[in-house]
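Render this sequence as a predicted structure.
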Amino acid sequence: MPRRTSAAPRAGHTIVVAPTGAEGADDRGPGGTGRPLATLGEARRRAREAAAEGNRDVTVLLLDGTHRLTSPLRLGAADSGRNGHTVTWKAAPGARPVLSGARPVTGWEPDDPDGAATGVYRAHVGTGFDSRQLYVDGVPAQRARIRLARGDITLTPTGFTLDNPDLAYLAALPDQGRIDFQATLAFTNRFAPVRSVSGSEVVMRQPAWDNNTYGYDTVQTPFRAPAFFLINSRSFLDEPGEWYLDTTAGTLYYMPLPGQDISRARVELPRLESLLQVGGTYDEPARGLRFEGLTFTGTTWLRPGSPDGYANQQTGVFVSGVQPHRPADAFTSCSSGCAGFEASRDGWAQAAAAVQVSAADDIEFVGTTFVNLGSVGLGIGNDADAHATGVGLGAHRVSVVGSTFTASSGGGIVVGGVRPDAHHPSDPRMVNSDIVLSDNRVHATALEYLDQAAIFASYVTRLTIEHNHVSEMPYIGIGLGYGWGANDAGGSPDYVERGLYDFRPIHDTPTTLSDVRVVGNHVRDVVRTMAEGGCIYTLSAIPGGRVDENYCENSGQYGLYFDEGSRHLSVSDNVFVGTAGQWAHANNQNGNHTGDLTLTGNHTTNPAITGIADGDRGNVVRGNVVVTGGNLPIEASRVIYNAGPTGPYRGAPDPRRPPVGAFLAADPAPVSAGDPIIVTATVKNLGDRPATGLTVSITVPEGWRAERAGRPVRRALPPGASDTETWRITAPEPFATPAGQVPVRASVVFRAGEAEYVLDRSLTPAVPGPPRGGR
């Protein structure tokens, strides 16, 4: 992070700016609290002048309200802190300033053609712009759409034919070129614009259609049953929450949700695709910039509606432009990979972020919010095609702390690029390095581009992802690496066979991806829509990679997914609860180099693990423990409690992650009729404040007897302290409860601070055969 010089600086310089139109705001004034500036553009000019003096910190204080941008705020070398000083853009004390690229929509009236009450409202919004996003009461609204059954259409090399006569009306629709076709497949979520509809033939725009029918998990050969939609026609607007923008007439249409009063609803229509562009050149990077307490909101992203479409390949990366090596019969011959498709890889593009950072050093985001954005929230060191300055990569010492990413069309944070300069840079200054993402919350986002991850990092040296909360994601929680092992030193035998190296050489040096730490994150409810993902997903070699003490909860597929070429990773002391699929899975097929994985000391409620065997391919798999969700060991409870944001960013007490762990053990474990067993409840205070009012109660099946043996646990446990309570449990004689159905339950009640917790644990002692005296 930025470091101050040893010389004593002058007092810092402060500039105050209010939202445009605020009373008393004037760009000709002094820019103080009493007479703030009126625009961020003027604030930038004055901050640049003050920073140029080079001997003081500069602070731009944003007053409360919405600062509406007419163009992105671009900060380069001239806007940087000098000589170890920092230029900080931050919220004024007590303020919650919002930087928005949208305009509010008002003046709604019913849209009642021929007097018919349709439930649709319209408003005039002007012309000269387009948007693929609309935000209503802080929620992204759905563009008007219809769903296509697989039998409704027949896919062709130029588009598709309409086989359902109920769709004949499409040929008469106006603005056919504004209609999108969406295909949600296994790990790709694709968009292509329509060119025309004539009779039963739908012709798609190129090269979008060619690129969406090229490679793997394609529209015509998906890896699972697809979902198809047509989107963005006034005629499709028939469900509450849908909208349509007529760019020719300048009219916005919207059907309110049940109970939604359109006259009071906050409706925001984006005009900009990005809000903040931080970047210089490799010779003169942007540096020494800090952003604190700001909210970024109100953008769209128009690229998927262009002739390029969104030929998604995974995690926000897509095939772009005409592919020179695509054969004439590619619709059939390349529908599940081919040599020509391999030739496209070095030219894949990245989704652009609303806030972009490249060619930049010592940049901080603290307590910022990214919400209602048209694509990725924050891009750090992405390829040049994903940064408005045209200079990509080269991000050094960037930190994102205590920030929130939610309710946007794309994922939260993307670090690194995917093109050759990202993994084998032609200039060493291009290397992305020393990136820290900590104590952030990324949840309920990637609502339109379902293939994008909450946090994704491709190629970066020294990356730390620690104590973040990730939840409610359609696909991957945390994704690491790219290239499927093909860019690693020595290449991949699989990609020799596929023909990739007919178009470029095999690298003899490692990629820039190394020394990645993923520690203490809480990832839950991911892979809810897509497939081939997990809480944590990896690709390619990651020397020095560590995945430690993370809590993965309720993944819709895997806990850990080590995809092609994943190597040199150590995975220890993580907890996996309720994963629908294997807690760990490795793709080691087709001769790829997946291996050298060390998995030790992990706890999981799902015993399944595939593709990773101890001693095979250099793997070490030892000391992992299968547990039940109802009786987690103390060590697992410690990991669970400590996962996610820490300190001032921890948030309200979470009853699902209590600060006290409890574990039941039985001795002897088998129970026979008439014989007692001793059940010991061990409790430990895992938090940083005393646990008080502590009690343990035991419940046994009807007819059984439970007696406390010895003293109860102490009523108060200081941080780090533990105690035990023992109970003598006696089975009746005889008893007829089948083996495996003899639950002993413990309820641990305590307080920590102002919060009260109830922690339930259960133990099922084994029953060895028929009861004593039975036949």
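Summary. Residues 609 and 616 are 14 Å apart (CA to CA). The first helix runs from residue 40 to 52.
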